[in-house]
Design brief:
Number of helices: 11
Bound molecules: adenosine monophosphate
Radius of gyration: 19 Å
Order of helices and strands: EHEHEHEHHHHEHEHHHEEE
Shape: globular
Helix content: 25-40%
Distance between the termini: 32 Å
Structural class: alpha/beta
Strand order of the largest sheet: 1-4-3-2-5-6
Length: about 300
């Protein structure tokens, strides 16, 4: 259900850098209480996961900007850039209902006027990107970090909201903001799930009914591992191995990784002390799904 936060107002629809910049100049830089501008970067095809970030921003900031941009720089040659869903009217209605003040919908030709190869890129440290999704999507996190840095520079938010659903991405953004001393706070939003546990994702619409029925197994495996390791009934490696064999045995499912990692460095973890994140990626037919759970003692 979409939770109305404010009565329906129509967000401004900003397409050019100029329009955004004029709007941004009108927003007071400081003031009592709330941060001036909160920002939720998205690729559109909005769902409750995105909206939970929007609701957080609307609550904590005087103005909320949502960007909708399917960023070509973060898609590999054989990935789903062209077929990525783009239901713009629906997205705008959802933003209006959620109390968003401005939608920034930049054009690729203004974002990358000289093409995607001729741009200064942000390259996150290899230790964060050489494994997990980075292993299967070379260049992806550089594409993400680059577009997010550009968007931060254009929108100039005091706070930016990112979902834990994309945990490796969230970690890359935290490190980038810290390493480059970017003047904003990154706020984490919890993963929003369907009733059966499947993490919401714009890509879930591509699942066949059979794949959709099977997909909650990812969260089931993650929560099993979280419980077994936290309760000490299995070691991390035993529990991960059991999860891997379960996922690998499923028809039509191809497991890419299932790993337990340190919550900040994303390095593999052998022993559980205070916290860990368990991350998974698997393809259901052509549809690649990712999920994770954060486990604290
Ligand atoms: P995307 O449009 O997929 O690039 O996602 C935009 C933002 O929404 C990112 O910060 C994602 O981590 C976040 N997000 C996507 N799905 C979920 C979810 N199920 N729960 C919480 N946040 C999410």
């Amino acid at each position: 259900m979409i939770m109305p936060v404010k009565s329906t107002t129509h967000p401004l629809f900003l397409e050019s850098f100029d329009e955004l910049s004029r709007w941004r100049q009108d927003q007071a830089a400081t003031g009592p209480g709330k941060a001036a501008v909160g920002f939720v970067p998205t690729m559109g095809a909005l769902h409750e996961g995105h909206l939970s970030l929007v609701h957080q921003s609307v609550k904590e900031c005087r103005k909320t900007v949502v960007s909708i941009f399917v960023n070509p720089l973060q898609f590999g040659a054989n990935e789903d850039l062209d077929r990525y869903p783009r239901p713009l009217d629906r997205d705008m209605a959802m933003c209006a209902e959620a109390g968003v003040d401005a939608i920034f919908h930049p054009l690729a030709r203004e974002m990358y006027p000289h093409g995607q190869d001729l741009i200064t890129k942000v390259v996150p440290p290899e230790t964060l990107t050489e494994r997990l999704c980075g292993l299967f999507r070379p260049g992806h996190f550089s594409g993400v970090a680059t577009v997010v840095a550009k968007l931060f520079s254009l929108v100039q938010p005091q706070r930016a909201y990112f979902g834990e659903k994309d945990y490796q991405q969230l970690t890359v953004i935290h490190h980038m903001v810290r390493d480059l001393n970017l003047p904003l706070e990154v706020v984490n939003g919890a993963t929003i799930r369907e009733r059966d546990g499947l993490a919401m994702s714009s890509r879930n619409v591509y699942l066949t009914p059979e794949q959709r029925a099977l997909a909650p197994v990812l969260y089931e495996v993650l929560t099993n591992i979280a419980n077994e390791v936290r309760n000490g009934t299995k070691s991390i490696s035993q529990s991960i191995e059991a999860g891997r064999s379960r996922l690998s045995s499923l028809p039509g499912v191809s497991l890419q990784y299932l790993e337990a990692c340190d919550v900040d460095s994303l390095q593999p973890l052998e022993r559980f002390t205070n916290s860990m994140v368990v991350l998974v990626a698997a393809k259901f037919g052509d549809v690649r799904l990712i999920d994770n759970v954060i486990v604290r003692a």
